[in-house]
Amino acid sequence: MAIFDIKLPKRIAKALRLSNGDVQKQQRRVLKKLLTKARFTDFGQKYHFDNILMQEDIVHSYQKTVPIYNYNSIYKEWWHKTLEGKADICWPGKIKYYALSSGTSEASSKYLPITNDLLQGNKTIMIKQLLSLRNYTDVNVRSIGRGWLMLGGSTDLEKGPGYYAGDLSGISVKKSPFWFQPFYKPTKRISKEKDWNKKLEEIVSHAKDWDIAFIVGVPAWVQMCMEMVIERYHLNNIHEIWPNLSYFVHGGVSLEPYRLGFKKLLGKPIVYIETYLASEGFIAYQSRPNAQGGMKLVVSDHIFFEFVPFDNENFLPNGDLVDNPETLLVSDVQEGKDYALLISTPAGAWRYLLGDTVRFTDKKKFEVIISGRTKHFLSLVGEHLSVDNMNRALQLASEEMDISIPEFTVAGEPHGTFFAHKWFVACDHPIDEKKLITLIDENIKKLNDDYAVERKSALKDVTIKVLPEEAFLNFLASRGKMGAQHKFPRVLKGDILEAWNKFLIEKEY
């Protein structure tokens, strides 16, 4: 049974027929739909959604009336009430599911509300992405009707007083439509396993029985899984056991540092497709090949977007928003500039600061890349080093040296009365550390003018420490963050940097 032959539910089929009209009208329609449905909630009553809907310019009225929230502020004022079982707080009804998310640096879990409306919107976008695979002429899309290996969180959700909580991928699989079940791997029993190491072992032991064409997951964990399969069955490459493997759908972190490592595990080329599926909603997806790395923003569906220029006028040095920042609509952004995302969703997130920064690569097609995090950047002396700069510089250095670096992170540190950057990279083979850090440094100078200037003044040095990959994985495990949903932070600051340095000393890395 091919995915394109399935008769879709009427609600999804109708959503898929939305025309690509004016983006302002599309976003206005999305906002109007959100406000209309939530107007009788506590949040909607406080901020007079009914009155906003009566205004000629509902977008301007909404922005003027509703404040900007981050997770801490909206949880403290609103979302904590839903965990107590109260209904109609920020979205109609009771919240029965929560995605547990800690991003890459937070110590405690965040409880992000998941509603049926949000999941329905996510499913619609997933199907749109599947249909867009027709644009990939070099691979037979009928292969999608074979096995899908999804390396996600456990479907055995945590039971709370009146709700369930877990990883979004686990919730999504648990509530996936019936027509998806025949394709899904691993089995329901394996999917419930909470111990990530046991789950991997189970997947590896069953790998010989599956015909996998489609892998979905975070690059680091997918790479580890394929390496384990190749080692277990004494293979030269993964295609010897999964000859029909054609697609890798990835998200969460940039693929670039992993691309060379993946190439060495494959017997033939596959199609890499990036998605931007956050716990708060399905933000964007890669809809065509060779899109400059860009993903199509889902402007006509279930999320209303605003963009805050990521600069010194709108953000404090620690990454927090200033009071009354400049906010732009999707029609007002510029290509090549970084913006922090504000989203309003059918899960009761209102003008919610997601924490990611994006950069438009093609404004006409609404295509973006994830350029970093509002808290994950280094600017000790004005060098404005973004995660995107780091990924690209490391990719270029890895390609030149023909080495695979599956993990890395960067920290700032004092250097006399000035400052330095210290890189920590994972590599399980002997490498020339001096050559690697020199290439990284020179590549960043070419990519980032501010960095190049500061390397001649206050940013006095750039150093490196090469570690085995297990050091990064063991650190995550020590913080209870093993599994497909967890990612190593690309920038270390504050308490997590202190914990990392202490860990390296204690474990004698």
TrEMBL record:
PANTHER family attached to this UniProt entry: GH3 DOMAIN-CONTAINING PROTEIN
UniProt-recorded Gene Ontology molecular function terms: acid-amino acid ligase activity
A Pfam family matched in the record: GH3_C
Cellular component, GO, one term: cytoplasm
Name the UniProt record assigns to this protein: GH3 auxin-responsive promoter
Residue ranges of domain GH3 C-terminal in the record: 389-493
Domain GH3 middle per the UniProt entry, residue ranges: 298-363
